[in-house]
Amino acid sequence: YNRWEPHYFSDYGITASRDRHWNYAVYTNRLIIDTPGINNRMIGLDLYRKNANGLLVWETFWWDHAALASDSPWNDPGTNWGNGALSYFYPPRRDGLAEDPDYRIVPSLRLETFRESADDYEYAVLLEELLEAAKSKGLDESEARAIMDQINRFFVDSVHWSQNDAWYLELRDRMAQAIVGLKRSLN
Question: How far, rounded to the nearest angstrom, does the alpha carbon of residue 125 sit from its chain's CA centroid?
Fold first, then answer.
């Protein structure tokens, strides 16, 4: 179920506030290794549009469990093994767990994608702040406002979104251009 539906907050008397809301992900297609990269990249803008400011992923630091199907995400990408299952980090050995603790890690492309997602979130917040500043000074912010409105266009509803990564990346570029343009106008 999705606790981000608008009725959840009113049903429980919760005041929606970006500084208090994080998304907590458990068993989601955003975590599996063979999902399209956009499913990880869009998280930043999804958090932004849901008025949240953080993401906690279940078992991000989990390295052992009784239900392990395999002990190496290098050999079995579908393994339940720790961070390999979440595809953020891989263990340094490709042939299973080391006999002695080995705390080296190998970051994955998925981690880099999440990093870009954090930047997407920051772009949206920065653009929102600049839009408010432009509005307070009576500047024309209609083009930048239209770009912000495009964020919601990407998401069909709270659990479905477009798989059009080219459009998403183009949106990010337009957000960056709007940020630069508004900063120039405000100075």
Answer: 14
